[in-house]
């Protein structure tokens, strides 16, 4: 049985780096976090986990044949090319204000993130 | 976690391809935010179509063979299988109506 129970979290250090990146990048691009902060928390944890494992914050909302090769290719490293070019984030981390799921927040605390991902 | 059963690389053939009813497969990953949003929708679909459609989930991190076989890229990806064949696919966190309308075509 595969469940989320055995999924490990990122290091505190990487989580804080990616948390600060997400806040700064949202403000710089006039995008907002999801109305469901659990979505934001899970994605930031996933980015930080990839930074720990691969050295780069590879998008956690895609499946890759070879994660190391994808991280080296950089196309899907956050902020990915579709986000930088067209503000398209299918992970729903950075949402434009016209998106139905966009909330009003551009900030999320470390404890809030772990509040969600401790139970994922 | 949801009510829908988890299927693995080793059980996919039996649970999905050999199913006598259409199967909705939710390909998800642990740190995928939109997967959190689609999970309750998938559970509602499982209840709504109980007896007519089987609903299962595949963790793509733990089951790379199946994810690769069906060329999963963006997650979540929802696929519909009927008679051992993939017949349709919906990508991303979609509303329940989109999913139920898609499923209705294969009943």
UniProtKB/TrEMBL annotation, chain A:
Catalytic activity, reaction form: [thioredoxin]-disulfide + 2 reduced [2Fe-2S]-[ferredoxin] + 2 H(+) = [thioredoxin]-dithiol + 2 oxidized [2Fe-2S]-[ferredoxin]
Signal sequence region: none
Residue numbers annotated as active site: 61 (nucleophile)
Cofactors demanded by this protein: [4Fe-4S] cluster
Pfam family, one: FeThRed_B
Site (Increases the nucleophilicity of the active site Cys): 90
Keywords assigned by UniProt, alphabetized: 4Fe-4S, Disulfide bond, Iron, Iron-sulfur, Metal-binding, Oxidoreductase, Redox-active center
Example GO molecular function: metal ion binding
Gene3D superfamilies noted in UniProt: Ferredoxin thioredoxin reductase catalytic beta subunit
S-S pairs: 61-91
Name of the top EC class for this enzyme: oxidoreductase
Keyword Signal on entry: no
EC number: 1.8.7.2
Record's keyword annotation contains Oxidoreductase: yes
InterPro entries in the cross-refs: FTR_bsu (IPR004209), FTR_bsu_Cyanobacter (IPR024707), FTR_bsu_sf (IPR036644)
UniProt: [4Fe-4S] cluster binding residues: 59, 78, 80, 89
Cofactor note: Binds 1 [4Fe-4S] cluster.
SUPFAM superfamilies found in the cross-reference section: Ferredoxin thioredoxin reductase (FTR), catalytic beta chain (SSF57662)
Subunit structure: Heterodimer of subunit A (variable subunit) and subunit B (catalytic subunit). Heterodimeric FTR forms a complex with ferredoxin and thioredoxin.
Function of the protein: Catalytic subunit of the ferredoxin-thioredoxin reductase (FTR), which catalyzes the two-electron reduction of thioredoxins by the electrons provided by reduced ferredoxin.
Protein family: Belongs to the ferredoxin thioredoxin reductase beta subunit family.
PANTHER family for the chain: FERREDOXIN-THIOREDOXIN REDUCTASE CATALYTIC CHAIN, CHLOROPLASTIC
Protein name per the record: Ferredoxin-thioredoxin reductase, catalytic chain
